[in-house]
Please model this.
Amino acid sequence: MKFSAAIATLAAAGSALAAPSEPETFDLMALRSASPIHFAPFSAAKSNILLNLKHQNATCEGDNYNRATFYLKDSGLFLYSKGVKHQRIFVDRSGMGQGKIGYLTDNTYLPRHFELKGWAIDKNGDLNFNGSSLFACSGAIDDAWSVWVLIPSNPTPARNEECLGMSSRTIPIKKPVSCEYSQ
Ligand SMILES: *[C@@H]1O[C@H](CO)[C@@H](O)[C@H](O)[C@H]1NC(C)=O
Ligand SMILES: *[C@@H]1O[C@H](CO)[C@@H](O)[C@H](O)[C@H]1NC(C)=O
Model:
């Protein structure tokens, strides 16, 4: 018993050492049947997370016109990049932010009410923030939809015209494209 436990411990340590240093990356797709956002990929542009954006104009090592690639680390959500710039998703559930999701580049300035941790992937493979699902509102740049964390008391934040609940399905990406997304 003791011996096999020691072997198991060694094996676990070995696999941890052998594990690739690359994070487990994924893209995200909106699921809301019979709506304009069904199957829309999540994009990242101008410090916003968007759906139905034609071109995110990111600086990438490869083609990544409208799909952003993410990874989770310690319940924080990051945009994948091999570069020196560090881009991290925040949620602003303050009265002003109303559930707004965006990203920070290099964490230069972090307002006190911005939340960075609380992201998780549920058993269906859907991303949520502290158990809250995400939703999207029309009227963002280039006719895209902006992505928010649902605050039940505020279903149409910032007077957005049309808002829809959705599932945010993760799609594992084996060979991620490194990008620096626009600020
Ligand atoms: C991307 O670039 C095109 C062409 O310059 C521009 O029309 C469009 O508004 C840009 N979109 C974003 C999200 O930056
Ligand atoms: C996360 O969710 C739990 C349960 O709904 C809640 O009690 C807690 O306050 C939430 N935490 C944050 C930081 O919102």
User: Anything to note?
Assistant: Residues 118, 130-131 surround 2-acetamido-2-deoxy-beta-D-glucopyranose (ligand 2) (CB under 6 Å). The radius of gyration is 18 Å. DSSP finds one helix and 16 strands in the chain.
